[in-house]
Design a protein that fits this description.
Rossmann fold; gluconate utilization; EC 1.1.1.44; alpha/beta; 19 helices; N-(1-d-carboxylethyl)-l-norvaline Dehydrogenase, domain 2; about 10% strand; 8-stranded mixed beta sheet; globular
Length: about 475
């Protein structure tokens, strides 16, 4: 009798193909199916030849080739295709079988799908998978959530294929119920947007303000990758700046219009919905939107004048300040991202392990960095830590970085070089450490034009007041509410 497969996978695109090769290399037999059946045969007879794969030409064949409880993983385009495949798979499964979505699904969809699949007597897992093609093949970071009863059945497979940190701990653990896994993956991607943007702002300052060549910048990023900034994104930036085509830096030949797949936008919208100031990531999303307006920017550049870029300071000091600015902003980005996860956990009833999430991001994923080990320590020291900036280590680091960070922002603004994420992060830092903000005036304005009421510093919290500011209004106040 033919050996049944340990897991089945639908979707043999780049991520799916590499992920099943990873699974097979760890000793698992994998059944594979793709809507375009020719891809199945091509894979089984190509990269999968001689390996423990079972090719399936239909959903029915795929399910029939699986050990019970059956585990069917989808790596297909987010949105309607996921729902379509769920509807195709469900009729062929039995109670206790498991459907897994390994794509970049929006977390509300995963919440909805978990309820739907569970209503059919089945189990559902929505897992973020980060690391791209290389990570899928050699060890990604995985962030699973969904039906808790499913975890024991998929744990060994997931943790065996995941990236490992120095002590062998896998970069994969159970995140939480229903959409928790995809929410954490969404925040990961938002932080990725932010990290990439602040690196790009540092690059632009080096190039346009300091007049540095790609080779010089390559050396700076090479040096930065040895210290606090040691990370995958700094590492690949070093490599990109050193890559040449026809003797010239390829990066300078690439059109300056950025693409995006939506996860950064989702992170920003979730922050607005939950009332969390996710300023750095929000600005990084808008920076991509502005870059996409290339033709309009070219037109504006011909008619709108700004300051002439002229740097007269100490170049070496400026490079050191840039390092501080990057590190300070990076701390803010993670502080805001973790703040968002905390609020979402409270909203949805998730019991998130924040130190564990940092560990999951230590390897395999795009934002992997040495820095994440310090985040895990912070939450190990204080599991109830309300904000990373209140951890002694990060408080000390951001305070030490702020002088250089301020000089960078001031110099950039004076010279008209846009640094939206570096400056928004600094403004958040200053706002966060301010005992008093000007929202008292804002509340007075709201009460003046809309009778929205206000609280007073000389009265207990929770008591609301309205003033007849003009003498022409009445005593009726609007209902107090927060959106």
């Amino acid at each position: 009798m033919t050996k049944l497969a340990d897991i089945g996978l639908i979707g043999l695109a780049v991520m799916g193909e590499n992920l099943v090769l990873n699974m097979e290399s760890k000793g698992y037999t994998v059944a594979v199916y793709n809507r375009t059946v020719e891809k199945v045969d091509k894979f089984v007879n190509g990269r999968g030849a001689g390996k423990n794969f079972i090719g399936a030409h239909s959903i029915e064949d795929l399910v029939a080739s699986l050990e019970k409880p059956r585990k069917v993983m989808m790596l297909v385009k987010a949105g309607q295709p996921v729902d379509d495949f769920i509807d195709m798979i469900v009729p062929h499964l039995d109670k206790g079988d498991i459907i897994i979505d390994g794509g970049n699904s929006h977390f509300p969809d995963t919440i909805r799908r978990t309820k739907y699949v569970e209503s059919k007597g089945l189990l559902y897992v929505g897992t973020g998978v980060s690391g791209g093609e290389e990570g899928a093949l050699n060890g990604p970071s995985m962030m699973p959530g969904g039906s808790p009863e499913a975890w024991p059945h998929v744990k060994d497979i997931f943790q065996s294929i995941a990236a490992k940190v120095e002590d062998g701990t896998p970069c994969c653990d159970w995140v939480g119920e229903d959409g928790a896994g995809h929410f954490v993956k969404m925040v990961h991607n938002g932080i990725e947007y932010g990290d990439m943007q602040i690196i790009c702002e540092a690059y632009q300052l080096m190039k346009d303000l300091l007049g540095m060549s790609a080779d010089e910048m390559h050396e700076v990023f090479k040096e930065w990758n040895k210290g606090d900034l040691d990370s995958y994104l700094i590492e690949i930036t070093r490599d990109i700046l050193g890559y040449k085509e026809d003797g010239e830096a390829l990066v300078e030949k690439i059109l300056d219009t950025a693409g995006q797949k939506g996860t950064g936008k989702w992170t920003g919208v979730a922050a607005l919905d939950l009332g969390i100031p996710l300023t750095l990531i929000g600005e990084s999303v808008f920076a991509r939107c502005l870059s996409a307006q290339k033709d309009l920017r070219v037109e504006a550049s011909k008619v709108i004048e700004g300051p002439k870029v002229k740097f007269e300071g100490d170049k070496a000091q400026m490079i050191n300040d840039l390092k501080d600015a990057l590190f300070g902003a990076k701390i803010i980005s993670y502080a805001q991202g973790y703040n968002l996860m905390m609020e979402a956990a409270a909203e949805h009833g998730w019991n998130l392990n924040y130190g564990g999430i940092a560990l999951m991001w230590r390897g395999g994923c795009i934002i992997r960095s040495v820095f994440l080990g310090d985040i895990k320590k912070a939450f190990d020291n204080n599991p109830e830590l309300p904000n990373l900036l209140l951890d002694p280590y990060f408080k000390g680091k951001v305070e030490a970085a702020q002088a250089g960070w301020r000089r960078v922002c001031a110099t950039a603004l004076t010279n008209g070089v846009p640094v939206p994420s570096l400056t928004s992060a600094l403004c958040y830092f200053d706002g966060f450490r301010s005992e008093r903000l000007p929202a008292n005036l804002l509340q007075a304005q709201r009460d003046y034009f809309g009778a929205h009421t206000y609280e007073r510093i000389d009265k207990p919290r929770g008591q609301f007041f309205h003033t007849n500011w003009t003498g022409r209004g009445g005593d009726t106040a609007s209902t107090t509410y927060d959106v």
